[in-house]
Structure formats: structure tokens, C-alpha cells
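Q: I'm writing a short explainer about Protoporphyrinogen IX oxidase for a general audience and would like to include a description of its predicted shape. Could you first generate the structure from this sequence?
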Amino acid sequence: MWGKKANMVRILAQPGCVASICRRPGGRWRAALRIAIRRIVVHCLLFKIFDGSLAGRLSPMLWIKALHIVFVASWFAGLFYLPRIFVNLAMESDPAATQRLLLMARKLYRFMTILAVPALAFGLILWLYYGIGRYGGWLHAKLLIVVLLLGYHHACGRLLRKFETGRNTRSHRWYRYFNEVPVLGLLGAVILAVVKPF
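A: Of course. Here's the predicted structure. Afterward I'll give you a sentence or two in plain language.
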């Protein structure tokens, strides 16, 4: 059956095929062209699905893994940028500029907290699906890094509240070093997940 479908795809894909289909009485060539293109796309898609080459790509877990990566990357964008705002807040003396920076920091912290929830949820689904305890020590090390990053996220919230109440005692130099922590966390998590060294 699928041999016939493959032959039909080859026939429809020939250079003169679409043009010959379009030569219909009444000048309805645009509708005929749309039908021809639709047939080519549908037949190619069906052939690929049932031939097995697309079956793996339609797995729900691959979609969950993709969403997990997207939300983790978005969460890390906030973890990278919020401490940079803290650096500017520690250096700023103008009250109007300080209020603008505080507004930016509050919105960013709220946004990155929202992004962290689906990132962790999709990661938990993957962990439960593939089996708890089935993997080596690399996964436990990665989970430890995730816990430490959650602590870092919480620490950012506490530091933000100190800035809001005027109780910050840290220098801008300290915040520059503090800003490098998520870089190390991301580096370690990616190496553990990809290389799986132990």
C-alpha cells in the first residue's frame, strides 16, 4: 500500500505535474494549485509517519523534554540578569534611578519564579517517566545542583527585599561574584546531563 503512496508522491513531485493539474477549464488554476500542494504535503507526511521515520519524533516525552529545556533556559536568563541589576542598585545613589531599578528587579523576579515552576514540573515528569534510581550518580549530582540553584533563587528574593527596605549591606563587587554562581551551576548541570561522567 505504501509503495503506491510513494509512487504517487513521486508523480506529484514531477516538474510538469502541478502545471498540468492547474490547466483546468474556467481559469480555476489557483484552487487547483492549492489542492495539488495539499495532496503532496499530506501524502509525504503520511508516508513518513507510517514508514516509521517520523514516529519517534511524535513521542510525547520528546515534547516534554523540549519544553523542559525551553523553560530552564528562560529561568536561567532571569538568574543571570537579576544579580546584574543588584550590581547597579549597589552603585546607584540617585533615588529616581534606584526606584526604576527596583521596579525592574521586582518584575524580573516575579517572571523568573513563574518560569521556574514549569521547568521543575517538566523535569519531574521526565524523572518519573524514565524511572527513579535507574541512572548513575550523575543524575543525583544534577539534582543536587538544581536544589542549590533553587536556594540561589530564594537568596535573590531575600536580597531584593533588603534593597526594597534600604537594608542592603553588600558592595557591588560582592554582587559581581554572586552573579557568577548560576554560570557554574549551568555548566555543571549541562556536563552531567550530556557527558554522564559517572
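A: For your explainer, you could say: The CA atoms of residues 80 and 183 lie 8 Å apart.
Q: Perfect, that's easy to follow.
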